[in-house]
């Protein structure tokens, strides 16, 4: 009976030794598990806040700051001299009016031609920037997942990467406020999103590390709620604040990201992973795994290759 009890308490190479809120693992270098009580509530609150902050920052950049910053750079490129005082909203309305059959003066036609080039360039730069961010994120997410699984540190496996992502992400956001050109802006945006994923991926992974099967669904639901609310409120709040703060909003977001990340790490301290036992791992085979889907016949048919 005693042996059966121990076997039933075994989970993911862990044996729960201590009754109460927290169970310590016997596998060296892994995380403790929250069984319930105040410890689980504290973790739930802070990971929800952490996800809220990261998603709010990402949505504020993607929905408000990035499009407006691209527009600012391109406006100064296309509308120079006396044209620098034109109102884009007025030109957009004029374009719609002319499209409906209204006549335009020679000057209005000239401005509409410039506006057409500006509008096309804005769409191209925005599309290219989003593509770069998407590709970099696609590459970063699995790599940072593997690295955080195999990290030895006094802060645990996940916390170092969460802190690195928060600190460097905040620095990149601050530098974005002072971007001198579109290429610099694109590089800093890509780095910002990449490093914020440095924090996002290990933070998500900590749910599986620190929860039991019976509580994981509830915690995952709280994380999803925090993410959704962060995206919604981040979009609305950034739209309102941009009117008064302009691109200084980048600095507000940098501070918000840094505070949220640091508080999560401090309030949900992990166990040391300095004694973590690592299995042999080959990066070559890991990256070859990215090519496996391309060999699938169904995917080839969909892509017509």
| Count of alpha/pi helices | 10
Mean pLDDT: 86
Class inferred from helices and paired strands: mainly alpha
CATH class of the domain at 41-86 and 120-267: Mainly Alpha
The fourth-level CATH homologous superfamily of the domain at 41-86 and 120-267 is MFS general substrate transporter like domains
User: Widest sheet: strand order?
Assistant: 1-2
Form type = elongated
Number of strands: 4
Strand content: under 5%
> Which architecture of the domain at 41-86 and 120-267 does the CATH hierarchy give at level 2?
Up-down Bundle
3D architecture notes:
The protein has 305 residues and is mainly α. It has a domain at 41-86 and 120-267: MFS general substrate transporter like domains (Growth Hormone, Chain: A). 71% of the residues lie in helices and 3% in strands. It is built from ten helices and four strands. The protein has helices at residues 2-8, 37-78, 88-99, 106-149, 159-176, 182-210, 213-245, 249-267, 283-288, 297-303; strands at residues 10-11, 14-15, 22-23, 33-34. The strands form two sheets. Strands 1-2 form a two-stranded antiparallel sheet. The chain has a two-stranded antiparallel sheet with strand order 3-4. Helix 2 (37-78) packs antiparallel against helix 8 (249-267) and helix 3 (88-99) packs across helix 4 (106-149). The longest helix has 44 residues, at 106-149. Mean pLDDT is 86; it is low at 1-19.
Brief characterization of the structure:
With 305 residues, the protein is mostly helical.
Keyphrases for this structure?
305 residues; mainly alpha; Growth Hormone, Chain: A; 4 strands; disordered N terminus
């Amino acid at each position: 009976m005693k042996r059966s009890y121990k076997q039933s308490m075994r989970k993911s190479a862990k044996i729960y030794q201590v009754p109460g809120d927290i169970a310590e693992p016997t596998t060296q270098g892994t995380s403790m598990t929250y069984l319930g009580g105040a410890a689980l509530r504290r973790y739930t609150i802070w990971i929800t806040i952490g996800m809220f902050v990261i998603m709010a920052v990402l949505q504020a950049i993607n929905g408000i700051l990035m499009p407006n910053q691209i527009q600012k750079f391109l406006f100064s490129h296309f509308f120079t001299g006396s044209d620098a005082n034109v109102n884009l909203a007025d030109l957009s309305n004029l374009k719609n009016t002319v499209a409906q059959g209204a006549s335009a003066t020679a000057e209005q036609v000239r401005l509409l031609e410039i506006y057409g080039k500006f509008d096309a360039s804005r769409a191209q730069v925005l599309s290219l920037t989003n593509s770069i961010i998407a590709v970099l994120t696609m590459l970063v997410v699995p790599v940072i997942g593997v690295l955080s699984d195999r990290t030895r540190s006094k802060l645990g496996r996940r916390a170092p990467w969460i802190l690195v992502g928060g600190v460097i992400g905040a620095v990149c956001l601050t530098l974005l406020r002072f971007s001198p050109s579109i290429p610099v802006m694109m590089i800093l945006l890509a780095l910002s999103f990449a490093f914020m994923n440095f924090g996002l991926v290990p933070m998500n992974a900590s749910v599986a590390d620190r929860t039991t099967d019976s509580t994981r669904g509830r915690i995952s639901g709280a994380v999803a709620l925090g993410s959704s609310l962060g995206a919604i409120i981040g979009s609305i709040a950034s739209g309102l604040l941009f009117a008064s703060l302009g691109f200084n909003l980048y600095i507000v977001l940098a501070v918000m990201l840094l505070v949220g990340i640091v508080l999560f790490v401090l309030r949900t301290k992990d166990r040391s992973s300095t004694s973590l036992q690592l299995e042999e791992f080959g990066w070559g085979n890991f990256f070859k795994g990215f090519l496996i889907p391309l060999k699938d016949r169904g995917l080839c048919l969909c892509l017509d290759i």
